[in-house]
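User: What would this chain look like folded?
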Amino acid sequence: MRPPHHLFLCKTCAPDLPNIAERIQMRFYELAPPHIRFTLTNCLSVCRNGPIMVVYPEAIWYHKVDEALFGRIVQEHMIEGRPVAEYVFQGIETPADAQARREAARAAKRQKGLIIVNTGHGKGKTTAAIGMLLRAKGRTLRVGGIQFLKHENANYGELRALKSLGVALNPMGDGWTWKSQDLQETQAKALQAWEVAKTQIASGDYDVFLLDEFTYLLSYGWLEVEAVVAWLLAHKPPMLHVIITGRNAPPALIAAADLVTEMNALKHPLVDQGIRAQKGIEF
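Assistant: Here's the prediction, encoded as structure tokens.
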């Protein structure tokens, strides 16, 4: 038996249409069968062509949802089982199509060094990247990286663990910018770290390389994102995977990347409960 449908509607991605999310929610109460669930949610990470709605369990994404389209989605998709295809921008794929795509990928045996971006305002960007370093190390790949803002004398738990495995993830900053006593010095250290990173990336000595907190150099305007992307495309070895972390990844970097994940903060122990950073969790 298929699980019931659950509709998630972004309530923030259509600021030019005031109260549209609430109006669509009222249409849900008027039209939808009782077994369908509906949730107004914060950003779904696709803040364009809103309002955006996702239908689970199929993971079909609709854009430009208004009250009239919502009525069609309920009738045609929820009740009759036919997605409203002209408003779907992600997710329609038959089982046969999915199987054919998987078989084609296996037959092609294509591989490439990826540019991977972990961004967003939620916790876990660096943690996920370090998990990828550990996975790669377990596959005997050559891994390393640079942390652009963490203090050069940092000795966090993850750095200790990586060091014990023979992985060099080198902090080269002077601490977070909002604590800096000299932003010019902070910027200079970060730019010097980029010069070191370029040498290491182009060296051919690595299979996976992490640029931790690197997006800040771009969003603060310390580096031109177009120049950075052009350098990576020109000098990154074809099979080297580069992982970039940090908030506010600029559009040009996202466009150039092969894999982009946005971490969204739903709850946080400091914000919600006043619990400070704890050993083994944050450091």
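The chain is about 40% helix and 20% strand. If you want, I can go into more detail on any region.
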